[in-house]
Write a structure and sequence with these properties.
Blueprint (H helix, E strand, L loop, with lengths): L29 H9 L10 H8 L3 H7 L4 H7 L1 H12 L6
Length: about 100
């Protein structure tokens, strides 16, 4: 546990992913997009940009979120790179 959290003493909103049936859902950007909208779409929402870029690989997702791009459209923007990755990965799979 962090002894000096970024938002110590402030009201924050979250989602409990331990809800029944939560394991049935695939990874979703919707909670992030929802929290961003609730924040007033403030640049301060992304308080640790370096960490966010590390998770997403570059700044493209951040720019899309700020532009109001929908989750399906963000996912669609990954399609070409994912296809390339799957093709590259195929030759290393032990059990195709």
């Amino acid at each position: 546990m962090d002894s000096n959290p970024v938002y110590m003493g402030e009201t924050c909103f979250g989602k409990d992913f331990r809800e029944p049936g939560a394991e049935e859902h695939r990874f979703s950007l919707e909670p992030l997009l929802d929290f961003y909208r609730k924040s007033g779409e403030s640049d301060e929402f992304f308080s640790r940009l370096q960490w966010f870029h590390l998770l997403t690989g570059d700044d493209q997702v951040l720019l899309q979120i700020k532009e109001g791009v929908s989750e399906p459209d963000i996912r669609a923007s990954w399609a070409e790179e994912l296809a390339e990755y799957r093709s590259l990965r195929a030759k290393y799979l032990l059990y195709p």
